[in-house]
Amino acid sequence: MCINKIILEDVIAISEDVKAVFKLLEGKKMLITGGGGFIGAYLLDFIDYCNRNAFDKPANIICIENYKTGSQARIKHLEGNDNFSFLAMDVSKPFEIAGDIDYVIHTASIASPTYYRKYPIETIETNVWGLKNLLDLSKAKEVKSILFFSTSEIYGDPSPDNIPTKETYNGNVSCIGPRACYDESKRLGETLCINYYKQYGLPVKIVRPFNIYGPGLRLDDKRVIPDFFNDAINQGRIEVLSDGTPKRSFCYISDAVSGFIKALLSDYNGEAFNIGNDEEEISIYELAQKIAGIVGNITIDYIKSKDHDYLTDNPQRRCPDLSKSRSLIDYNPRISIDEGLRRLKRWYMNNCSI
C-alpha cells in the first residue's frame, strides 16, 4: 500500500523545512510511541521518506502502539518495511527494549476530549506512567534526545492579557473538571520531564501543540474540525454545539511536524516550545463558515449538546505566542487555515478518512 498523495506532499514539505537538521537522524535508532495516531503516523512517514530519498544509511524505527484510538490502516503501507518494527503494547505498562536507542518521541496519548473523558484513567496512565517508563528507558540508554508531547491545554483558559500565550504563562486549569484527566496529566508530565533534566541531565524537550489538524484526523475523531467536516459531508449541515464565539488558532499538520522535529534535534534541553500558528485566530462560527464554504451547499445550525459537561472548562481563546520557537528553533508556520482546510477536504473526499 502506498502513502496517500496529499500526505506525501506534506511529508516532502516537512523534509524541505527541516533539511538543515534532519541528517542528524540518519542511521539512528528511534522509539516512537503512538505511531498509529494522527501526529505519530506523520512522523513515521517522514522518516520513511528520508530513508528512501535522503539517507545513505536508513534510520530504524521501533513503534509502540496499542491502537486504543490510533488507526492501524493509517500506517498499513509501512507493513513489511525492514526499517520499521511495530510492538502492540501499552506504553504505560513495564516494558524492555533491546539494544541502543538514539531518540525517543512520546506522541501516544488520548487527545480528543470525547475520548479522554471516556477513558480518563487510561489517559492519565499514558501521560504519566507511560512517560515515566520512557524517561527511565531514555536515561538507561543515554539517548541523544527525548521529545514529550504536551499540549496547549496545560494553559487552561488564559486571561485576555495572556493571549497570545507565552510558555511562561502558568495556566488557569481546573484539577477536578471533566477535562482535568488530560490537562493535569500533561502538566504533571512536564514536571516529570523537567526534573529528569535537572536531576539526571536527561536531554528532554517539551512541545505544546496548539490545535493541530490535517489529513489523518478521522471523521469520527470528535475534535471540532473533523466533526464539522463529518457533519458537512454526511449530513449537509454543520451543528455548532456552542454559541460559536470561542476562538482558536489552528495549525496545519506539516507546519507542526516541522516544529516538532526542530525541537527534538535542537540543543535546548529542559525547554518547552509552543507549536502552532499565530497568524489567524478565528471563532468557532467562522470555522464552521469556512468549512461550509469549502464543502458547499451547507447550512449551519446551533444545537445544544446532550452532554451537560460538553462546554465545562472549555477555553474561550487559544492562540500561541511563537516568539520563543521562532527565535530558538527557527519555527515558522506557513500554511493558512483556508489552504489547510482545502487540503483536508481533498483527503476526506478521496475516501481517506481512516
UniProtKB/TrEMBL annotation:
- Superkingdom as given in the UniProt entry: Bacteria
Q: Which organism is it from?
A: Lutispora saccharofermentans
Q: Which Pfam families does the entry link to? A: Epimerase
Q: Which UniProt keywords apply?
A: Decarboxylase, Lyase, NAD
Report the protein name in the record.
NAD-dependent epimerase/dehydratase family protein
Indicate the segments forming the NAD-dependent epimerase/dehydratase domain, all copies.
30-276
Required cofactor names: NAD(+)
